[in-house]
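SUBJECT: protein chain
CONTENTS: sequence, structure tokens:
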Amino acid sequence: MSELELVRRRLRRFAEREAAGLSPLYEHLAAKAAEDTDVAELLAEAPPDDAHPTLLLAAAHRLVQAEPIHELSRYYPSLGGMDGMDSETWPMFRTFLLERADRVREIMRTRTTQTNEVRRAATLYPVVALAAKQARGKVGLLEVGCSAGLLLGMDTFSYRYQCDGGEQLTAGPAKAAVGLHCALELGTGAALPKLPKKLATGAKVGLDRSPVDAGDEEELAWLEACVWADQPDRTRSLRTAAAAQRRSTPELVAGDAVDDLPAAAARVPAELPLIVFTSHVLSYLAEERRPEFVAALGRLAAERPLWWVSQEVYAAGLRHVLPGRDELDYERTQQAVVGVATWERDQVRAQALALAAPHGGRMTWLA
């Protein structure tokens, strides 16, 4: 398959399976781009591992940010636009992009998709808290694929879970700067999770091939550009979490998710049980690297107590430690799986605890 055919396939898949029902603007633009050779070829020029629709759309978003009075901005709610799609949307977008093709190429050559989705903390928190309870004391957090590391602030966020029948669960400090809401439903036979009011952490480290400094306005602007432009509430959460992080910045390490994992883990004091977590990261790893990542976790677990909490599509994540659960596949659920894995004497034990919407905000508890 040629690079052009590959990106066209990715664009169609993104429009039909990821943006559909969530982002009318990006569904429309991706579907049109898949059929437009000139635009699709722009994405095909990006490094193969990075040539995903989200990178092209983020590059366009960043350029519209830089020209906020351009007429195209009226289709971008993130910039105050209020117009829905019409017959002018795609032609205007196409012309805007191709007239700035060199700048688009430069962005896609030097940037990667950096979706630091703060709302995912609400779907990760119940499982991280469960692992911390098993650890019986302070834990060290290590986020792989951390971007700006905003999810490492999950212990400082407050959470409100709206459950079936009107019941609510709350967790986290009452006066937190970042407050997250999440709809929580129960799977068949499941009981509500027990959430601690506090998550005690002793160290926080993030590992990313290109860590982002959220205190730098240019870097923060790129993070915002990676947020889907017709979901401004996600941008507000991002800004709030970035401001809160400046009061307590985690240690962010540049490196490879597999090769540099041991060095990053070593930055968490050895006396702390280690919770490694990933959130929609493994899909961006080459397929052959995913089992290598799991094997690297297993080697670390032989040296210290370790839990891996993952929020990934099943095929990219939990399948490697919990095979044979095809009912969890993204093709069937259209959701990520939140799970936990531990190792004991080279044996891995894993559980699928929840299904979660890709950007957080909604989850189904399975345990």
User: Anything to note?
Assistant: The chain has a mean pLDDT of 94. Residues 120-365 form a domain with the Rossmann fold fold (CATH 3.40.50).
